[in-house]
UniProtKB/TrEMBL annotation:
Molecular-function annotations in GO: enoyl-CoA hydratase activity
Gene Ontology annotations of biological process type: fatty acid beta-oxidation
Listed InterPro entries: ClpP/crotonase-like_dom_sf, Enoyl-CoA_hyd/isom_CS, Enoyl-CoA_hydra/iso, Enoyl-CoA_hydra_C
Entry similarity comment: Belongs to the enoyl-CoA hydratase/isomerase family.
Lineage start: Bacteria, Pseudomonadati, Pseudomonadota, Alphaproteobacteria, Hyphomicrobiales
PROSITE patterns: ENOYL_COA_HYDRATASE
Catalytic activity: a 4-saturated-(3S)-3-hydroxyacyl-CoA = a (3E)-enoyl-CoA + H2O; a (3S)-3-hydroxyacyl-CoA = a (2E)-enoyl-CoA + H2O
Assigned keywords, A-Z: Fatty acid metabolism, Lipid metabolism, Lyase
Role summary: Could possibly oxidize fatty acids using specific components.
Gene3D superfamilies to which the protein is assigned, alphabetical: 2-enoyl-CoA Hydratase, Chain A, domain 1, Lyase 2-enoyl-coa Hydratase, Chain A, domain 2
Protein name in UniProt: enoyl-CoA hydratase
Domain of life: Bacteria
Enzyme Commission numbers on file: 4.2.1.17
Organism of origin: Propylenella binzhouense
Amino acid sequence: MAYEQVRLERRGRAALITLNRPKALNALSADLLAELTEALDEIAEDERIGATVITGSERAFAAGADIKEMVELDPVAAYRDDFLSGWERVAAHRKPLVAAVAGYALGGGCELAMMCDFILAADNARFGMPEITLGIIPGIGGTQRLIRSVGKAKAMEMILTGRTMDAVEAERCGLVSRIVEAAELLDEAVRVAQRIASFSLPAVMAAKEAVGRANETTLAEGIRFERRLFYSLFATLDQKEGMAAFLEKREPQFRNR
Ligand code: CAA
């Protein structure tokens, strides 16, 4: 499919999705979401791709849901059609997603970054939940994911006041995994995704699923879930290859089987 509001490129076994509405600071319109989910479906089906980087521009990862599109939102139609439900498809993507965030990640932009498995931040990144200043609240998971990521005090402060956080604060409180110089961000994010994609895809997907489960269940259930996935990986050829390669002191050749 030809995309306009996102760009999809392949870099070896990693994919790179670039949000591409620079004039609107990558505001997340319905069309952009449709293209993003289409691109992710393409990646899900592409056996060659093992992980994906989602990025924006140097000025903005994304400045939130498209306010111009939302201003006349009909609440009945929004409820009937579940206006925001398309975002669940992003969160449900089963291969790893790395958010490479430079510039603004506000509202829905910050929520999209948090739907990814981890965030690499450029030194100029700014995170925030300004919805309260518009008379609304976050609507694509922000109230639920931010508290799990940074704890109640910071989540409440950001959501109730609209205050933004710089990259240093975001790293300190665990919202981002690392800060990278802005000029290096994309190359580093692609390198990280390529490293993930060099491993056995079933193991990588199981790792993502198991860690993701921690937010949705009790510790005891989560540990049982992890153990079942752990046992199941011994049914893969890649487990045999990975361990044989270690014992034979050579590089493993994973086949995603
Ligand atoms: N929706 C639509 N258009 C947006 C936008 C958004 N979220 N954010 C920026 N734009 C547009 C601006 O309207 C402007 O377009 P025009 O040139 O046509 O006027 C263009 O992008 C550039 O923006 P600014 O001129 O405002 O740039 P700036 O550098 O002065 O400010 C900014 C940058 C601080 C990010 C500012 O644009 C801003 O505050 N944006 C809105 C942020 C926001 O409130 N996000 C939350 C949206 S609601 C949401 O996300 C709900 C949800 O959870 C589902």
